[in-house]
Amino acid sequence: MLLAHQLAVESDLITADMVEVIEFPHLATKYEVMGVPRTVINETIHIEGAVPEQMLMKEFARLLK
Amino acid sequence: MALLNEKIRKEISSVLADVTNPVTLKVFTQPFECQYCKETRELAEEVAALSDKLSFEAYDFVEDKAVADSLGIDKIPAIAIVGAKDYGIRLYGIPSGYEFGSFIEDIKLVATGDSGLAPATRQAVAKLKDPVHIQVFVTPT
What we know:
Chain A is an alpha+beta fold. Chain A has helices at 2-10, 25-30, 53-61, and strands spanning 14-20, 38-41, 45-48. Chain B is an alpha+beta fold.
């Protein structure tokens, strides 16, 4: 989660939310959260588990195309 | 009754001792039908009290809808961690267990305003042209 928030600090275009799924079960259902952490970027990119910076940037590259 | 005991308060105070810039915790709750609203508000208020650089603001999600909308808050309990500017950092739900540590780290991060990311990451992020919304789903542990 810290990485997502670091990205938000780095760019004015990035917003980053922590969402506690027990309190928002409808979102857990909507985003098919089976395990945590689960990262969802722009509703389209889904990443399971804690992701290192380099790996997240590979996913990010898809947004830059 | 306080949510944080004396030992934890001391630990957090020392962690927050190197925070030198103002950070505001803007908390959005409502009195009813919100499982952890009360606890989230109390937790943020107790943490804010541990550093003179931290301030705490409580908003009612319904009565202060204009403020909530201006920050893009769409559910509660919510904490917006705002520093020299609003970086877009939001916590939805109570930051407890492991996420409590992340909450404290977020405060330090916002205070510095420096992402601390690797140069390659900064370069990649600088190429963004459209808004990016990241949601990290967690559970209390």
